[in-house]
TrEMBL record:
Keyword Signal: yes
The species this protein was found in: Undibacterium amnicola
UniProt-listed Pfam families: ZrgA
Domain of life: Bacteria
Alphabetized InterPro entries for the sequence: ZrgA-like
Signal peptide positions (record): 1-22
Protein name per the record: DUF2796 domain-containing protein
Length: 178
């Protein structure tokens, strides 16, 4: 999935801008409670969405679940991840559907390796989007800002053939147009 994402970025921006975008992408892994990051790369034939957030924003904790109630929260979150387009609504005229989702969250998958992962769990995923009309992909609505009160700010970056756009969204302003 990351290979597809980078290929898409290269095709959109050309090689001269890849380094700066790669540096921006590395900021996806900053761990700040109350904040989440979303990047959307759009090409003529496909789109890829990358998302990152501390798990605390969704669950109220970011370590392995300790009891049945916490296990239920994790199960519910994993279920909701089956269709991230319920969290991030894209331009209806683009007619996008979520394709393959690549989840990178050691706490959710039970594959924590380091002590840092055990203390500061993140939710990260990439999703391929199948859009019938990707050229109509011109807006998004970040519904997750109203669904999850732990997320106060969503930093959004969009890259497409026409340029780059960035905006910080919050519960009172969940829409972005480019």
């Amino acid at each position: 999935m990351k290979k597809i994402f980078l290929t898409l970025i290269v095709s959109i921006l050309g090689l001269t801008h890849v380094t700066s975008f790669a540096q921006q992408k590395s900021s996806l892994h900053a761990h700040v409670h109350g904040q989440a990051q979303l990047q959307l790369a759009i090409d003529q034939s496909q789109a890829v969405m990358s998302f990152s957030s501390p798990l605390d924003n969704f669950l109220g904790f970011e370590r392995a679940p300790k009891d049945e109630a916490e296990q239920d929260k994790v199960k519910q979150l994993l279920q909701q991840l089956q269709n991230p387009l319920l969290w991030i609504e894209l331009s209806p005229t683009a007619q996008c559907q979520a394709g393959q989702i690549e989840l990178d969250s050691p706490v959710l998958t039970g594959k924590q390796k380091s002590n840092e992962e055990k203390k500061h769990g993140d939710l990260r995923f990439d999703v391929e989007l199948q859009c019938k009309n990707p050229q109509h992909l011109r807006s998004l609505k970040a519904k997750l800002l109203q669904q999850y009160k732990g997320i106060h700010r969503l930093k959004v970056e969009v890259v497409h053939a026409g340029g780059q756009h960035a905006k910080t969204l919050h519960a009172d302003e969940i829409n972005m147009t480019w």
